[in-house]
TrEMBL record:
Organism: Hemibagrus wyckioides
One Pfam family of this chain: fn3
Bias type Polar residues, positions: 711-721
Protein name per Swiss-Prot or TrEMBL: Granulocyte colony-stimulating factor receptor
Biased composition (Basic and acidic residues): 701-710, 723-734
Start and end residues of each Fibronectin type-III domain: 230-326, 427-520, 521-615
Residues annotated as transmembrane: 620-642
Localization per record: Membrane
SUPFAM superfamilies to which the protein is assigned, alphabetical: Fibronectin type III, Immunoglobulin
Keywords (A to Z) from UniProt: Glycoprotein, Immunoglobulin domain, Membrane, Receptor, Repeat, Signal, Transmembrane, Transmembrane helix
Membrane topology field: Single-pass type I membrane protein
Residue ranges of every copy of the Ig-like domain listed in the record: 32-104
Stretch list, region Disordered: 701-742, 761-813
GO annotations of cellular component type: plasma membrane
Amino acid sequence: MILSIMALRQTIVHAVLWTILYSFTKNIRVSPCAVVNSSSTLVPFGSAVTASCYIKECQLEKKQDFIIKWKKNAHFIPSGNASQKNVNEIHISNFTDKQAVLECFICDHNICNVVGGVLIRAAYPPPNPQNLTCQLNLKEGATLLCMWDTGIKTSDTPTNYTLYTQIRYLDTSPLKMHLPLPGENFFKVPRECFALFQEMQVYVVAMNAIGQARSNLLVLDPMTTVKLDAPMIEGVGTQTFGCLEFNWSLSRTQKWIQKLLNIEIKMKPVNSKIYNKQQLNRKPEKNVKVCNLLHGMRYEIQMRVRYNSSPWSEWSNAANGTTPMKAPTGRLVTWLKLPRPEIRNQTAQLFWKPSLQFRANSMNVSYTVSLMGEFTKKKETVCVTDQQSCSFQIHAKVKKVCLTAMNEVGKSNPTEVPVYRRRGSYRVPFLEILPQSEESLLARWKSPDTSAISEYVLEWKPLSGTNLNLVSFEIVGKNQTSFVISGLEPYMPYEMSVYPKYGGVIGHPNSTMIYTKEKAPSMCPKLEIGKITPSLVELSWDEIPLEQRNGIITGYRIFYRDEKNNSRVIDADSTTRHMMLKDLYPFTIYEIFLVTSTNGGSVTGSTITVKTVSIDAFEIVLIVIPACVGLVLFFFATFACFSKQKWMKKYLWPVIPDPANSNIKKWTTADSLECMPPFKELKDPVLMYLSHVSLLSLPEKESTKGDENIKSGNWPYNSKSVDAGHDDSSHDSETFDSEQQSEAVPYATVVFAGPYRRQPVPPPVYLRSESTQPLLGEEEPSSPRPYEKMTSQTDPPDVGHFSTFHKNSHGEKKASLWGDFPMLRSLEIDNKT
């Protein structure tokens, strides 16, 4: 029967091939007087092909000069030598076309007519089947499902697959052949074709018109491929401390299996999420005992099975069991917080957690907190709780705090908690928090500048949620400066603190707010509108609740645009709750919205619409009047500057002559004095002309009085006042008048306290007048030389009064008098200039 099926399949394949050939050759123009043959119409890719063209008796053959040519896919190709005049062959050594039409032509003087043709196709052998696998299924009548990969398809040639199976170590076992349906790459081997718990070999053969290929040989025991049903735990009991024993069985349809099976058991305390797993070998219906469990703990147990290396079954149903109880053992890790250690009576907070050696040995455990003084062994119980924290009042006499764990069987040894009564000055100088995952953080810090550090206390607590009183902590060694905190919730704020312990004191904490992972806030604050003016809008918003921030707020951003779609942006930091939008247009509608950002994203608030008010008449008056007043003052000041130019110049830019290039006569001109501002604080009028020099020689009797006059500064201001008490004919004082003698005033007066020839040569005494013109400095080249005593002459008579030189006096007399006074000689006015 199998042979007849294969023969039928071969017939179908050839029929398909001839159908394809006919579809290509029916369009070839053929002649009844020619026959075209080929070695094969389907050849392996790259093999040789031979074709021949035989010309029968017909009218074309009667022509003596005709030749035979060949075309492949409408292109002439070189042909071989003709064995006879009417027979021609062609040989293609490497046929690489998937399909090609070979046509035979009879040509007469470059006129060719086709007389026949043949279609030749090239194909590859099928690829080797890959990844052959089989799996036993005991649910559906114990069938063996085998599957394989067909590989990469190289041609359109139909390929057939055949699965062969044979039981090993049985000489009489025949090789069985299985034919999948066309296009399928799997086959279900029935139960009668294989044996359980015995090895068998399996392989697949692929075949097409070109050739065949075979897969690798697979050797397997069908039972090693079966996935058993999940087992059932029928009961759990206990007989010894720390152990649980339970019985189990396979499913109802698989209870006939009595072979040794692999068993995997997983268990966990009912209040935990971490499973412990164990593997062992057992036959079905045999009890399983698990030990090394905690005392007085309720466990949840599941199991699964497999045969040798077969796939694991699904997990069984969960069963619960409780181990026998014992008294708690081990110590507790504690953390006592005193807000202000130096205060004698205050509220203390004690936190604790089990150490690695602690065993509660029961499901229900409670804790007792007791206080003990320095000179007494009597304990004062202040707290009994099933939580892991306690708050109580602690007074100054308490030197020790004891913590004891209890259950229904007994108590543990007390854990002594030291009481730190002083607050140290050191703190951790640097604390950095880095996210590790959605549930963990890495804390890193630097040690203070002291070698007395004994340990660090890391404390973290949630800042939002239902259990705000939950405080977690960890005690780390003095040489450790980093720690990974796990078991946190993402997008929730936590406060973390690091306390250094040293020398019996606790230092100040370094605290920060942290997130394991951040995202955009759950909400955006609502904008509130405040004051609105023609050019200003006042905005404010509330702070986002802590549980809805989902991260640390990094800042706010306000977007607003007007009716013409002109947009602006204002940024604000995380502490800002108030903002002013300035430089707005009056009577304009603005759309405003707020964006709140964290390190994990941003959220946009709702858009509000605000319309600025228009400018009213009162505001226009307040703006126009000051503007007009300012404009009038500006024009008035400009007009005053141009109309009173000389007057303004007199006050702002007074003319200061250059003493090095001028003399006293030049200073007396009206042009040089008209720009001098008046001095209102002077009672007497300003001397307008400086052209008169008076010489005064006092007798010895009046020298003292003269000194007083010099010191007091009471000098006459005109010639008449000087000569009032002297007669012109009887006094030796003389006066020199300039061209304007009637209006001249003395510029300076030189006083000689005694006779000129009798006194030593002191420096001359110069007294400034009240004039504002500068004196000639001694450093200037035109300044008079210092006074020097002249050569000895006859002593002149004492001079006790002023005398005057008239303009018509003789020149020689004038020159002789000036020669006796070289200093006054240098002050002589040059009338030529």
